[in-house]
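Weekly structure sync, notes
Attendees: PL, DS, HV (note-taker this week)

Item 1: Large ribosomal subunit protein bL17
DS walked through the input record. Source organism listed as Hymenobacter wooponensis. Sequence as pasted into the shared doc:
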Amino acid sequence: MRHGKTINHLGRTASHRNAMLSNMASSLIMHKRVTTTVAKAKALRKFVEPLLTKAKSDTTHSRRLVFSVLENKETLKELFGTVSAKIGTRPGGYTRIIKLSENRLGDNAEMCIIELVDFNETLLASKTAVEAKATTTRRSRGKKKADAPAGEAVAPAAVVETAAPADTATTMVEEGETRDEAKADEEAAS
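Item 1 (cont.): predicted structure, written out as tokens:
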């Protein structure tokens, strides 16, 4: 009976599955993003997140434990170097799965991108912009007014108005006439 055994076998033997997940984890650590199927990405997430947690403490023991799984020195250097420095303050959830709209052409499998959360520069930039915009809330605005002395009036925000650009002259082009001829006729008339 298989009660409580929730691992996705991915249609492979245990040795094949472990080798595949080890290689995918190495690729994810080196390239920070991998495109794969949703089932493999979910299995990879369970496989790689404990390794990333072990990498947060740079000890000989944790290096040996991670190396026994990954078996790649370059990946180990990258993991304990740049990756562990970025994920050091994060309490968990180091990966993100983004489902793609198009399925794989051959077998119609659902495709996705699995990436390390702290290495997506566009999302990090938009997140900091949203945080900067959300610094003023109702409570903080009310607090600022309360902090201002009673005798001083709060000046309204300046309004900048810009004039619309002047209309450009248009020339009417008759049938069979070129633009240059129409322009020359209009200049001669004025």
